[in-house]
Amino acid sequence: MKNLLFLVCLIFSKILSAQNLQPTANKALIQFSINNFEKEKLNVPIYFFGKNSKKEFSTQKNDTQILLPLNDTYLVYSKIAIENYEIIVSNAPNQFYNVLFQFDNTKKNRLFATPLETVVQIKLSDHKNQGSKQVITFVNQNNQKQYKGTTNEDGFLEILLPNHTKYSIHIGATQNYSQIDLPHLPFDKIVKLLQFENELGQLQPSKDSALFNFTYFDLNQKPVKDEIIEIISLKTKKKFISQKTDNNGKTQIKVPIGDVYSLNTKYFKEFATQKVEAKPDLYVLPLNIRFPSSLSWEKQIEEEKKFEIAKEEKWKKMQKEIEEYKSAQEKMEKQRLEKEKKEEDIYFKNLMSEINKKRKEDSLIYLRDSLEAKTTQEKLLKTTKLKEKMAMQIRKHEDSIKVLKDSIRTAKLKMRIEEEKKYLTNKGFKIEQDSALLKAFQRNKHWKNQLLVVDVTGSMYVYLNQFKIWYSSKHNIFPNKMQFVLFNDGDDALKNNVYKKVGTTGGIYFSTTADFVDLETQMTKARQNGGGGDTPENDLEAVIKAIEKCKNYNEVILIADNTSQVRDIELLPKIKKPLRIILCGADFYVNGQYLEIAYKTKGSIHLLREDVDFSSKNLANYEKITIQNRTYMFVNERFFLLSDE
Fold first, then answer.
1. Half-sphere exposure (Cβ direction) of 560: Cα atoms closer than 13 Å
2. What is the DSSP letter of 7?
3. How far apart, in Å, are the Cα atoms of 407 and each of 4, 229, 337, 411?
4. What would the mean pLDDT of 508-535 be, rounded to a whole number?
5. pLDDT of residue 200
6. Could you give the angle at which helices 516-529 and 461-474 cross, rounded to 10 degrees?
7. DSSP E strand stretches across 489-564
8. How many Cβ atoms are within 10 Å of 112's Cβ, its own excluded?
9. Angle at 465 between CA 461 and CA 470, to 5 degrees
10. Are 514 and 522 in contact (CB under 8 A)?
11. Per residue in 149-171, is it b (16+ CB within 10 Å) or e — as a string?
């Protein structure tokens, strides 16, 4: 705090002839002596700063006199001590002052403030209160002039800066880390404490840039090396990329303040958003990321791909066998159809003969009754009754024939399914090895009024055989209680060079009949029009269309291929009904996307030996669940299979 002493000034009307300088009508003569507090004489320059004129006057080391303009108040100081004095000079002519200045000269190597310069003391320390040796640059915001200093080992720096301006503070390579405002206060001293984390790495936050400090852990909480984090501005779409994480899983990114950012890794996009306020401040944002490492994720993807390739090869082999089988069957089909037609013609000819015989007998009976009638009115009544009975019998016989024909068609279809199953089994294909579909329906007999959404792409052939066997044996039990939506992921769009767009991929077929033959016909049509062509499928588009179009159902059941990715997972928020998902091919693992769908719709997953109900589950982040003896972790609204380490 500055020390001001008011001196009693002597004004003489006559001039002392002993002095070298003389007061004038415009200037006062200040004669002075300088001592320390031990009354020893000091030979140092003295500075006189006019508070009104803002001008400064100084003496040489051995001077003892100075002339100063009238009508001003002067701050008097040296640059060896903190003490300062004030002299008021009026506008009277020929003024003379004889004064003594005392300064404490015992403090060596210290800076002392002046009327135009402020002593600025900076203390750098981290959260552990440890200092840091850094080069600090102060940039005058008016003229961009720079002043530099270096903190000591304790993080302390003292520097003299011109006041009445603002400064940007750069620390090391960190630009605009902070700022300081020096008002026009004579002999002022400002102490500024700054937190500066030595362990942050190469980057530091600043007043206009926030610092993200990331630590990447895998699901087993081990630091992950060589990962890259990407931050994207939601306002400008600009991307900020980190360096690779170090051995401790750490990396940094600096971004402008006043924005909202999405956080991304190589395989996990937009896993979080972070708002950085526009108010200038030192934003240091420590964020821990816990996802599978890219290396382990790529390994898992590679294993899944190998599994898919093996399955695809098996399917192609099966497809070839089916084509050979169908080719052989077609050669025999014509003969069989001709034979069956002849047999049917003979059968129905004999049946119609019996019907006509019976009809003739009934006609004779009614004719006899009519002839025996005594009156015209009785004859008319008998004739009318005869016609009505004959019409009823005709309808009854026609219905019987239709039912019989439908039964024959169904029996033939069942026979063909069984023949195909037997043929493929003899060829070495265990088409019911994964009977998850059959087991799921057996365990859940309480499902009523079902809306079934069925993947009919190429890789689902084995499971569709199961489905047809199950439905052919059950459909008479619940007539008109089931509705079907079949999807093939775009009707061979890729073969026709058509881009598959999420939400409008197409290849969706509806069947509201419970008739097994009609369902099989629709299924064949859907499969012939497209087989997918690539791994992802349009599961959710099909579910959404099914829910919109169909009415009067209790359960929505999705029959899906576990090894296929969900092309349109982004549509999940649009589904507001619980989904019962029967997963085919889930003997090795459960696809996390289907777990996510079941969890977020409060539905369920159905596997070979297990049903997983999510209707009342609320999982915490990083909570683990066990399915089929394998452990999955719920991370940021997604499910990840944990390694067996």
1. 34
2. P
3. 117, 64, 16, 6
4. 75
5. 52
6. 170
7. 508-511, 555-561
8. 19
9. 145
10. no
11. bebeeebebbbbbbbebebbbbb
122-148 mean pLDDT:
89
| Residues 257-294: tens digit of each pLDDT | 999 999 999 999 888 899 999 887 778 888 889 999 99
639's tokens = 């499910």
Interatomic CA distance for residues 323 and 634, integer angstroms: 44
Closest-CA residue to 134 (of 211, 204, 182, 181)? 204
Specify the DSSP element, H or E, that contains 359.
helix 294-371
SS (H, E, C) 566-618: ECCHHHHHHCCCCEEEEEECCCCCCCHHHHHHHHHCCCEEECCCCEEECCCCC
CA 191/CA 121 separation, integer angstroms = 5
**DSSP 8-state symbol, 55:** -
The whole-angstrom separation of Cα 398 and Cα 392 is 10
Our CA angle for 611, 433, 448, nearest 5°, is: 40
Coil/strand/helix, residue 129: coil
CB 231 within 8 A of CB 263: yes
Q: Beta strand pairing status for 117-125 and 189-195?
A: parallel
Entry pTM: 0.60
Strand spans (E) along 218-293: 230-233, 239-241, 250-256, 259-264, 272-276, 284-290
Q: How far apart are CA 612 and CA 70, in angstroms?
A: 96
Q: Return the SS3 of 137.
A: strand
State how beta strands 96-102 and 27-35 pair. Answer: parallel
Say if strands 65-69 and 72-77 run parallel, antiparallel, or are unpaired: unpaired
Three-state DSSP at 145 gives coil
Residue 26, by phi and psi: left (phi above 0), alpha (psi -120 to 50) or beta?
alpha
Distance in angstroms (rounded) separating the CA atoms of residues 122 and 607: 66
Q: Would you state the pLDDT for residue 6?
A: 39
Question: pLDDT tens across 80-111, in order?
Answer: 988 899 999 999 999 999 999 999 988 877 89
Cα–Cα dist 294/118, whole Å: 54
Cross-strand bridge partners of residue 167: 140, 180
